[in-house]
Amino acid sequence: MPIRPGKGVLYLAMDRPEQIRRALSRNATEADRDALKRLHMWRGPLPADVAAELTQLIGMCQADDADTLVVDSLKDAVPNLAEEAGGATWNRARQYLVAAGVQPIELHHNVKRGPNGGPPRSIADVYGSVWLTAGAGSVLALHGDPGDPVVTLRHLKQPCDELGPWEVEHDHTRGVSAVRHKLDLLALAARPNYSLTAAAAAVALFEVDKPTRPQIARAGRKLDQLVAAGSLITREFPGNGGLQTEYMQVVP
């Protein structure tokens, strides 16, 4: 994805700061020295409670000439995240940051569902108050056990186009992550004796037996983008009480 460099980054290393420092150092070399001058680290707890001083983060960013703030992690910045008051407090602080031209990136946790719990698939799987996600522009969920070399990434909330879902492979030695596998809708359309509809695409994309209407709609948007790009064509056929749309590969 395209990245536009900003003025600077303030990284709030509140959750195990030394571990964060060691992790970040894995991808840094002497060649990165000039770029790293734009990275500023805050180690440990914040100077004051966010609820008591909603604009303190703006002052910290301005002091370091930073237009990006990384919060690692949210539980260390705001108490009582499961309560509406705690979530609303953070959302107000976040909106102050955005209004001041600072983009916040927040690390947080999923709901813990026990050893047999499934992966996060919706906003409801994010731990805490609804305000934590209601005021966020984009929410990405990573699912896997600690130390797993391959995890799943899902885009639970999108400001525009949806990313993934993807399998992401972690190189723990070098500190690099890369997409290992993503579903190829064009390859699905090329399967013999296979009817690629929006519902069929949703089953494959979201790994469910019975996709919901929003999931089918999201899958349909992805397919329509391929049609607009000239990679797929459509035909209509009767089924399920009405006309269904099938997506087919363009054959030269």
Looking at how many chains there are and whether they match, the oligomeric state comes to single chain
**CATH topology title of the largest domain:** Rossmann fold
Count structural domains: 3
Which CATH-level-2 architecture of the largest domain? 3-Layer(aba) Sandwich
Radius of gyration: 22 Å
Overall structural class, as computed from helix and strand content, comes to: alpha/beta
Stretches where pLDDT falls below 50 for ≥5 residues?
A: none
Main pleated-sheet profile: 4 strands, parallel
Broad CATH class of the largest domain: Alpha Beta
The CATH superfamily title of the largest domain: P-loop containing nucleotide triphosphate hydrolases
User: Could you give the order of strands across the largest sheet?
Assistant: 2-1-3-4
Kindly, what is the distance between the CA atoms of the first and last residues, rounded to a whole number of angstroms? Answer: 30 Å
What is the overall pLDDT average? Answer: 89
Tell the overall outline.
elongated
As a percent range, the share of helical residues equals 25-40%
Number of helices: 9
Number of distinct beta strands:
10
Which band does the percent of strand residues land in?
15-25%
What order do the helices and strands follow? Answer: EHHEHEHHEHEEEEHHHEE
Would you kindly provide a written description of the structure presented here, covering whatever features stand out?
30% of the residues lie in helices and 24% in strands. It is α/β, with parallel strands linked by helices and 252 residues long. It folds into 3 domains: 9-136, Rossmann fold, CATH 3.40.50; 138-182, no CATH class; 185-249. The strands form 3 sheets. Strands 2-1-3-4 form a 4-stranded parallel beta sheet, sandwiched between helices. A hairpin with a 2-residue loop joins β9 and β10. The mean pLDDT is 89.
